[in-house]
Design brief:
By secondary structure, this protein is an all-alpha fold. It has one domain. The termini are far apart. Helices cover about 80% and strands about 0% of the residues.
């Protein structure tokens, strides 16, 4: 009986639409802004520390794609020139 009662309580999640008043929205915005501002120095330092590695990885990826594209184009060259 307990299992039947508990299983009926576990249904699919329903979307809940919450309407905030302007005051609640302002309060939420203030709280979110403070939390974001407290994280900003940490995120900026992480970004600064990892910047060079991320640029190098992106550059390597771009160069690799260009080399692959060049290889494909060179493979098609004999077909285009008729050789």
């Amino acid at each position: 009986m307990l299992a039947a009662l508990l299983s009926s309580a576990c249904g699919p999640d329903e979307a809940v639409r919450v309407q905030l008043t302007p005051d609640q929205r302002d309060t939420f915005h203030a709280i979110a802004s403070r939390r974001i501002d407290s994280l900003r120095p940490l995120l900026d330092s992480i970004c600064t520390i990892t910047f060079e590695d991320r640029v190098a990885a992106a550059t390597d990826s771009i160069v690799q794609r260009r080399l692959e594209e060049e290889t494909r184009l060179r493979a098609r060259l004999p077909q285009i020139t008729g050789q």
